[in-house]
Design brief:
By secondary structure, the protein is α/β, with parallel strands linked by helices. The protein has helices spanning 7-20, 57-67, 93-100, 119-126, 137-143, 145-153, 183-194, 203-209, 240-243, 258-267, 279-287, 313-318; strands at 34-39, 42-48, 76-81, 104-109, 130-133, 157-164, 169-172, 198-202, 225-229, 248-251, 272-275, 293-298, 306-308, 321-329, 332-339. The two termini are 35 Å apart.
Length: 342
């Protein structure tokens, strides 16, 4: 008989999803995963996947319970992703749950990875552990969207971030290159960068801005790969991207070669690419229908000698993107567009 979800079940899974967020920007190419252990209607422990090579969410939750003097024996585990049943950087989570004596496992989303794909649930059921799947599945799918997309398509999600002035200009030719958005907005941009595996720009952006394209807040566990589209080998040898010791990929091919580039990145476990290039680069991605997510940042500044972005709502709509969210980043208003289907 199918499990009937209660409001209490939903509350515990909401907690597991919230806990999973603690690993954001730290676990790729693994997905965000959270686990909550419940006994006698109360949470006794929680865990999340914190970094590559670290404990998985279920293992951390079991350790958390024991460190607090609680026995996980007889507990219910609420997990946002189907427990793994294979040896990787850590032992199988199914074994940990069985060893701990958990009596029931409630899962939000099946793991589409070929190494799991239903096997975790089957192993738990064969061990006599009541197992059910699908509680709050849409929220779990949104949380680990890059991972699920990569598992299905073997290439990364493409996210674009573009800042414009009040008139839709991306730059002011009357001044040297400079940021024209607020410090609060910059903080949000760095959060976005931390959640991406790579940042891509065109060579014109490197020549004009000489950017670092790094995460420069907190203590990031890793820096994203920097990618420069440079078909004519014009990237200055003394640019920061080539001299700071970080990882940079120069792509000396035309935009016609982008699909092969995305496949190549997918083969390298790159699951989310942030495009921060200028209008030319962004238009090419839009025209080829490659953009999955678009952040349009609206500044209140006005450029004296503007460079029009020519990014309009109609263009985004023609590219398969729909406005889904309005945000505030510092002093700037941000409209988020997403692709509803592939």
């Amino acid at each position: 008989m199918a499990r009937t979800w209660t409001d209490e079940d939903r509350s515990f899974m909401e907690r597991a999803l919230l806990v999973a967020e603690r690993g954001r920007g730290r676990v790729s190419p693994n997905p965000l995963v959270g686990c909550v252990l419940v006994k006698d209607g109360a949470v006794i422990a929680e865990g999340w996947h914190d970094h590559l090579g670290g404990l998985h969410a279920e293992q951390m939750a079991i350790h958390d319970a024991e460190s607090k003097g609680h026995s996980p024996n007889g507990a219910i585990a609420y997990v946002t992703l189907e427990p793994c049943n294979h040896f990787g950087r850590t032992p199988p989570c199914t074994e940990a749950l069985m060893w701990a004596g958990v009596k029931e496992v409630i899962i939000a989303h099946e793991d589409p990875n070929p190494t799991v794909r239903g096997e975790g649930k089957r192993v738990l059921e064969e061990a006599g552990i009541a197992t059910s799947m699908g509680l709050m599945e849409p929220l779990a799918a949104e949380q680990m969207k890059p991972f699920l997309h990569w598992c299905e398509h073997r290439k990364p999600i493409i996210t674009v971030k573009l800042a414009v002035d009040v008139n839709g200009s991306v730059d002011d030719r009357s001044k040297d290159a400079a940021r024209f958005t607020s410090a609060g907005c910059l903080e949000k941009v760095h959060e976005l960068r931390q959640d991406c595996d790579a940042i891509l720009v065109g060579v014109e952006t490197v020549i004009r801005d000489n950017p670092l394209l790094t995460v420069r807040q907190g203590q990031p566990i890793r820096q994203p790969l920097r990618i420069v589209i440079d078909p004519n080998a014009r990237c200055p040898a003394d640019s920061l991207l080539l001299t700071d010791g970080g990882d940079t990929m120069l792509v000396q091919s035309s935009f016609a070669g982008l699909p092969s580039l995305l496949n190549r990145l997918g083969d390298q476990n790159i699951q989310r690419v942030l495009v921060e290039g200028g209008p030319t680069t962004i238009h090419r991605f839009l025209e080829d229908g490659l953009v999955d997510e678009f952040y349009l940042v609206q500044s209140q500044q006005e450029h004296t000698d503007p460079v029009p972005s020519n990014i309009t709502a109609d263009l985004l709509a023609k590219s398969g993107l729909k406005s889904t969210e309005r945000l505030v980043w510092g002093d700037e208003h941000v409209e988020r567009f997403t692709r509803t289907s592939h």
